[in-house]
Specification:
- Helices cover 31% and strands 17% of the residues.
- It is an alpha/beta fold.
- Strands 2-1-3-4-5-6 form a six-stranded parallel β-sheet, sandwiched between helices.
Length: 156
Amino acid sequence: MSVESTESQPAANATKQRKPIHAKDATILIVEDNPSNFVLMARMLAYMGVQRCEWKTSGWQVVEFADTLPQVNLILMDIRLPYEDGYSALKKLREHPRLTETMVVAVTAEASTEQMAKARASGFDGFLGKPLDPDKFPDQVRRMLRGDEVWELSTP
């Protein structure tokens, strides 16, 4: 099942205007504790032309790590992470002056309308349910890099 935000469902961060960026110029940070999921996302990103893909396995110290990068255009963050979950990490990212406007998208196996609503209310800029669809993922990321919010549950 696919669910996308509409005009009648304004997102918490709908007022943010982001400058579109091409995949080849993007730096994407994946926060994911499962190496197989990271490798899958990294391969799909490389296939679509993303040349700079970074990885953290926990929300713990993600702000400090992201702040060392010259730029971060998109953060794809799992919600269930060891040490510090995605919600806590997002709160810290939103409080950091340099990273407050960075697009952060929840990517989680807890793909339900309730979790999507919680992610939206918490300030995430989008939601992708796992398992990720390799046929849809490149387009979803391109839309994010254009500045569009993407709110989609996984497809069975």
